[in-house]
Specification:
The chain has 3 domains: about 100 residues, no CATH class; about 110 residues, Roll (Pdz3 Domain); about 80 residues, Pdz3 Domain. The chain is elongated. Strand 5 and strand 6 form a beta hairpin. Helix content is about 30%, strand content about 30%. The longest helix is centred in the first third of the chain and has 30 residues. The chain contains 9 helices and 16 strands. Helix 1 runs antiparallel to helix 2 and helix 2 crosses helix 9. With about 350 residues, the protein is an alpha+beta fold. The strands form 6 sheets. It has a 4-stranded antiparallel beta sheet, covered by helices on one side. A 4-stranded antiparallel beta sheet has the order 12-11-13-14. Strands 1-2 form a two-stranded antiparallel sheet.
């Protein structure tokens, strides 16, 4: 029953998005006195599930849930019907309208999509606010990815300013946006207790905006290694390692942060290792053999386990200026690197 409800919710959500998109074409066409022959939710090859003609337009629901369409007289659309084009343009046809009207009709669907995204972000901010990690709470600094290293960042750095603006909310997207869009050329960091300024190489703009780097992060929060999830059929599962263990040493070498263990493990494929953990206040040494990839099958607790987050609420009026900013910095294709060992 749960899956039926989920499928129903998915179909309903898609239907609303499709109908709103097609309305973006439908209403401008009607406003410019262009005949709309069909308005369909889903495609209807061979037959439709429902149809009814009101005025000059047939409204219906197709059986193929891959989108929807409006059929406008004088426009070659998804139906690829070109027969009408053999005759002289009629006043009610799309092809007889001025270029600016045709452009508005064609761009109507995309315009609705843009406004809908803006509206959804605004309502999300108004209803739930924004939960964020204050940069001041990330007391261990950053763990740097490859592009961040090229910029001159190091593990443990604390970002203080982006250009002249304080780095208040912890997010590498703020840094990317500032460099690529605002042309910020400096980062102020705290390293080993001292502040210093990093100059941003102009070539970083091209790297940060390139398609191949779209899923790469500059940095994440640096955290200690506390065992979160243990994956099935892995060396960790076959060992005495337990969720909640604080890992404090690798082969007798004291280490603190998870990225340090990742580095040691990657350099020790298919080797016998020993991890020293603290469990219930007592020290314990656990032996295991790493995989060929240099992993043990552990996912650590994330930043929210160690650092407090804050929530910012928005009024109905101040949510709207924030919506485009959230839309430009919140991209679903960007994700954290796999935090596993």
């Amino acid at each position: 029953m749960e899956y039926v409800v989920m499928i129903g919710q998915l179909v309903m959500s898609l239907s609303i998005l499709i109908i709103l998109h097609e309305m973006g074409h439908f209403f401008p066409a009607k406003a410019f006195k262009t005949r709309v022959e069909k308005f369909y939710l889903f495609f209807d090859p061979y037959f439709s599930l429902f149809k009814k003609k009101i005025g000059e337009t047939e409204y219906g629901i197709g059986w193929l849930p891959l989108g929807g369409y409006v059929k406008i007289s004088g426009m070659v659309d998804e139906s690829f019907d070109t027969e009408a084009l053999k005759e002289e343009p009629q006043p009610w046809e799309f092809r007889s309208k001025p270029a600016w009207q045709r452009l508005i009709i064609m761009l109507g669907g995309v315009t609705v999509n843009f406004l809908l995204g803006f509206f959804i972000f605004s309502m999300v901010l108004f209803t739930w606010g924004e939960e964020f990690m204050p940069a001041a709470n990330v007391k261990y600094g950053i763990h740097v990815d490859s592009i961040g290293i090229q910029m001159g960042l190091e593990n443990g750095d604390k970002i203080v300013k982006i250009g002249d603006k304080p780095f208040d909310k912890f997010s590498d997207r703020q840094v990317v946006r500032a460099i690529v869009i605002d042309n910020i050329q400096t980062l102020t960091i705290e390293r080993n207790g001292r502040e210093q300024v990093i100059q941003i190489d102009p070539t970083m703009i091209k790297q940060l905006s390139s398609y191949k780097n779209k899923n790469k992060l500059l940095f994440t929060e640096r955290v200690p290694f506390v065992v979160g999830d243990i994956m099935k059929k892995t060396p960790a599962e076959d060992s005495d390692l337990t969720k909640g263990d604080s890992v404090v040493a690798f082969n007798g070498e004291p280490l603190i942060f998870f990225d340090e263990y990742q580095s040691r493990l990657k350099g020790s494929p298919s080797q016998q290792i020993e991890l020293t953990v603290i469990r219930d206040g007592a020290s314990k040494t656990i032996a295991m053999t790493t995989t060929e990839e240099g992993t043990i099958g552990v996912r650590p607790f994330g930043p929210a386990y160690f650092f407090d987050t804050q929530r910012q609420d928005f009024t109905f009026s101040n949510q709207f200026p924030q919506a485009p900013k959230k839309a430009s910095t919140s991209c679903p294709t960007r994700s954290r690197p796999s935090a596993t060992s």
